[in-house]
Amino acid sequence: MSVPETSYLVALGFGANLGDAAGALRRAVALLRERGLDFIAISSLYATKPWGVEDQPDFVNACALARTSLAPRELLALTQGAERALGRTPGRRWGPRAIDIDILFYEGLDWRDDFLVLPHPEMTRRAFVLHPLAEIAPDMIVEGVPIHQLSQKFGSDEVKKMTPF
Fold it and tell me: Has 102 been annotated as catalytic?
């Protein structure tokens, strides 16, 4: 499936819990910006408890909205390349990481292949995605519900707003 050469709104999720996690998120956005993503909104940084594997340091998370003309698989290659450039190495699923960049949403597109599913299938079950995304895109509809409503099912004890990006 190919996407026409035009600009699409995408939502990205960022997380890290090794080293200077907040700095890693900032470097990831800067690198993606250098490589052509047009960021239009970036959430605050959030401190969050680990999800999936709990025996590890807390995470720093953020979400961003950007515009791109890249097709979904091209965007995936871009984000994975940025992860590698910033020190991400293969590790335990949901384990500690220097940087993680997830494509959460791609405007007007439901996508499923062996490498990528959009919208991200876990995003509505993750407070560390919903709270920062609700900050910058409260009215974005996922699974027929605005993000701000989905985020309300999680209390503030699961995510703590830290600082502006």
Answer: yes
Q: Which domains does the chain have, with CATH numbers?
A: 8-160 (3.30.70.560)
Catalytic-labelled residue, pool 33, 92, 102, 125 = 102
User: Taking the CA atoms of the chain, what radius of gyration do you get in angstroms?
Assistant: 15
113 is catalytic: no
Residues 5-18 have pLDDT tens digits of 688 999 999 999 99
How many C-beta atoms surround the C-beta of residue 132 within 10 A? Answer: 29
33 is catalytic: no
Is 70 exceeded by the pLDDT of residue 3? no
The model's pTM is 0.89
Please pick, among 38, 73, 93, 97, the residue that the annotation labels catalytic.
Answer: 97
